[in-house]
Design brief:
The protein has about 240 residues and is an all-alpha fold. It contains 14 helices and no strands.
Length: about 240
């Protein structure tokens, strides 16, 4: 195929994606991405069109992650609107998670604490979210209490990660390693690996930490470009611990 022919095909693809934006009622900032960014129409196709055509949890998760990478504040705005209209525990939890994602840990901690009342007092999602917010606020004693309030049968890789971080912050390294290593092995994404590598670096095991960072570098090269920024942030957290 000639360069001219390839350019024409890409132009037609971009026009088709732009039409899809307008007809499906998508936010108009997608038009700017499609028409102005290199490979913008491909990003839109992967994030929006492909999941609509294929369905499935994996495709939908990829779409959500891509949209979050392109517009980090969108989920918070939508969650705030939903919570204001219907302040259910589910909506409070969604807003708390969005607030935490933007670094608003005070707000997140308050929302999780208010939601974890009554029949929801032992909800593992709420307790894990609150433990993470408390860790970011420098309150590891309270974070440990929240993490340990989760019933053993309800613990997940995310809750184990929070538990391990709290233990580590309180100087209980041996117990912390069990939880952090388990979370690193079971969690998708990069946070678990990054937290465990940082723990190893801080405890005089730099060689092991470097191996994990090298593995993260290999994995980052294989993921879609819109998702690499968050992955690199986690990788850099581990690298900073190595000095």
């Amino acid at each position: 195929m000639t360069v001219l022919g390839g350019g024409l095909l890409y132009l037609l693809l971009s026009l088709a994606m732009a039409v899809h934006v307008v007809r499906s009622g998508r936010p108009l900032w997608w038009l700017m991405i499609i028409l102005m960014l290199p490979f913008g129409s491909i990003i839109y196709g992967l994030a929006i069109v492909a999941p609509e055509m294929m369905g499935g949890a994996g495709a939908q998760r990829f779409a959500a992650e891509t949209r979050a990478a392109l517009d980090p504040g969108r989920e918070y705005r939508e969650a705030k609107r939903a919570c204001d209209e219907t302040p259910t525990v589910r909506n409070q939890s969604r807003l708390a998670a969005a607030a935490a994602g933007l670094g608003r840990h005070d707000e997140a901690e308050q929302l999780y604490r208010e939601a974890a009342q009554g029949v929801h007092a032992d909800d593992p999602v709420l307790l894990t979210g609150r433990a993470n917010a408390l860790l970011e606020l420098g309150r590891p004693d309270e974070a440990l209490a929240a993490a340990e309030a989760i019933k053993p049968e309800d613990r997940t890789p995310h809750s184990r990660l929070a538990h391990g971080r709290a233990l580590d912050a309180l100087g209980r390294a041996r117990e912390a390693e069990v939880e952090l290593k388990s979370a690193a092995e079971d969690l998708p994404g990069f946070e678990g690996q990054a937290r465990y590598a940082a723990f190893l670096a801080h405890n005089g095991r730099a060689a092991e930490a470097r191996e994990i960072v090298a593995d993260m570098d290999r994995r980052i090269g294989k993921i879609p470009r819109p998702l690499r920024r968050e992955a690199r942030d986690w990788r850099d957290l581990a690298a900073r611990a190595l000095g």
